[in-house]
From TrEMBL:
SUPFAM superfamilies: FAD/NAD(P)-binding domain. The keyword Cell inner membrane does not apply. Pfam families: FAD_binding_2. It comes from Natronobacterium lacisalsi AJ5. Its EC number is 1.1.5.3. This is Anaerobic glycerol-3-phosphate dehydrogenase subunit B.
Length: 447
């Protein structure tokens, strides 16, 4: 017997979580299934809407960084997911997401992008940024000291500072590299740094805690800077407490610089999203890949899907489905030497016949594969090669959609939020219509 829900969301990243929360917010009974851990742990934790406009130039050069991402959306190609859902839906979706994030993120006060320094010393335009990064904005004229650690080579404070200076930021940046109190191994995980600071563990024979010891190591290197930036390892469970303690010891503002994988800001965002799913009553099942589906060709609907739970095939039936499995990176879109496919429902993914036309010979050029994905209609239902809806009750959201290059545009999180929100709303509305029809039929059926 199949497990039944109003809406079944397949995929547990930002798009899937947003779709599930959006549908639940409309009153639908929602279940979310995901094959593996979310890619959020590999993400910076920043919420980008649109940082750069794609270019038609042969060299792939983009226009930006953009000041107002919403004003630029009408200039995007018609095939872009933002054009499909519309700028007002993007705004509404981001407002919905702001409600989920609460005060953990900043940036909702303006349409303009913020400029956030990254671990390499570049400046990234983003619409929302963690509270832990707020004191580090590149538009802030206060001088900054960037602190790297000898055992954490992925962030070099002096190099990042030099790159920021070269980028023309309106402040002086200096960098230093120090030993992190209590850590001597070069292979220590970022969670080890965070745990030391979260628990304020003793890191010396006299019992000095990690927070005070770290501040004491930084203090002699301050030369009048009003803010200090650290790699994003300042706590996992209690990051606000860690920053507050460091600020009290140092007498300056403290901020985190977003890092690559594994990313603590990404993990914190994941925790917040999954806490919201639990609060909304969404049933979440991880480690259960969808391995098959059944459809009724007469009405163009998916009847059920089959998930693999520890080797057992379990049927799940829903009135509506949302596909949010990611793109090429997340394996929501796959390729072999002959074709590009969407592996669960075999939805159409446009691509050139010759695989050598999938990429540019210029490593930094515009690569067609970056835009591979399913092609949706106005309700985000995937369409086949003739433009017809493939399944009436299936919608797609996030990186599984084609028509945009999220890496070049800095639009990944924004597209996931906007399309997840719209897909969830449509799925819930259609499911509500179905329940209403059933109720009406029951009322008029003779007894």
């Amino acid at each position: 017997m199949a497990i039944e829900d109003d809406v079944l969301v397949i995929g547990g990243g930002i798009a899937g979580a947003t779709a599930a929360l959006s549908a639940a917010d409309e009153g639908a009974d929602v279940r979310l299934v995901t094959h593996k851990e979310s890619t959020l742990r590999n993400a910076s934790g920043l919420i980008d809407v649109l940082g750069y406009l794609p270019s038609d130039d042969a060299d792939g050069a983009s226009e930006g960084p953009l000041v107002d991402p919403f004003a630029a959306i009408p200039d995007l190609p018609e095939t872009h997911p933002y054009r499909t859902v519309g700028v007002e839906a993007v705004r509404e979706a981001l407002s919905f997401f702001d409600g989920i994030l609460g005060d953990a993120y900043h940036g909702a006060h303006t349409d303009d992008n913020a400029l956030v320094p990254t671990q390499g010393g570049s400046v990234k335009p983003t619409a929302r940024y963690p509270r832990s990064s707020a004191a580090g904005l590149a538009s802030d004229p206060r001088d900054a000291l960037l602190v790297g650690f000898e055992t954490l080579p992925t962030f070099e404070g002096p190099l990042a500072a030099a790159h920021l200076e070269a980028a023309g930021v309106p402040f002086q940046a200096r960098g230093v590299t120090l030993s992190f109190p209590g850590i001597v191994r070069d292979d220590a995980k970022v969670t080890r740094y965070a745990h030391l600071l979260d628990q304020d563990e003793a890191v010396s024979r006299d019992g000095t805690g990690a927070r005070e010891a770290l501040a004491a190591a930084v203090q002699p290197h301050l030369e009048g800077e009003e803010r200090v930036g650290f790699p994003a390892v300042l706590g996992d469970e209690h990051p606000d407490e860690v920053r507050a303690a460091l600020e009290a010891h140092l007498g300056v503002d403290v901020f985190e610089v977003p890092m690559g994988p594994p990313s603590l800001p990404g993990l914190r965002l994941e925790d917040r999203l999954y806490a919201a799913l639990e609060a909304a009553g969404v049933e979440v099942r991880s480690g259960v890949p969808v391995v098959d589906y059944e459809s009724d060709g007469d009405d163009g609907r998916i009847d059920r899907v089959v998930v693999d739970r520890n080797g057992a095939e379990i049927p799940h039936r829903a009135d509506q489905y949302v596909l949010a499995t990611g793109g090429l990176v997340g394996k929501g879109v796959e390729s072999n030497r002959e074709r590009v496919i969407e592996p669960i429902f075999d939805c159409h993914v446009p691509h050139a016949t010759d695989r050598y036309d999938w990429f540019s010979e210029d490593a930094f050029g515009e690569h067609p594969f970056a835009r591979f994905g399913v092609v949706p209609d106005g309700e985000l239902r995937p369409r086949d090669g003739s433009g017809n809806v493939e399944f009436e009750n299936l919608r797609a959201a996030g990186a599984v959609l084609g028509g945009y290059d999220y890496a070049a545009e800095k639009s990944g999180a924004g597209v996931s939020i906007a399309t997840g929100y719209v897909a969830g709303r449509h799925a819930a509305a259609r499911s509500t219509d179905a329940r209403a029809r059933v109720a009406t039929n029951d009322e008029v059926t003779p007894q």
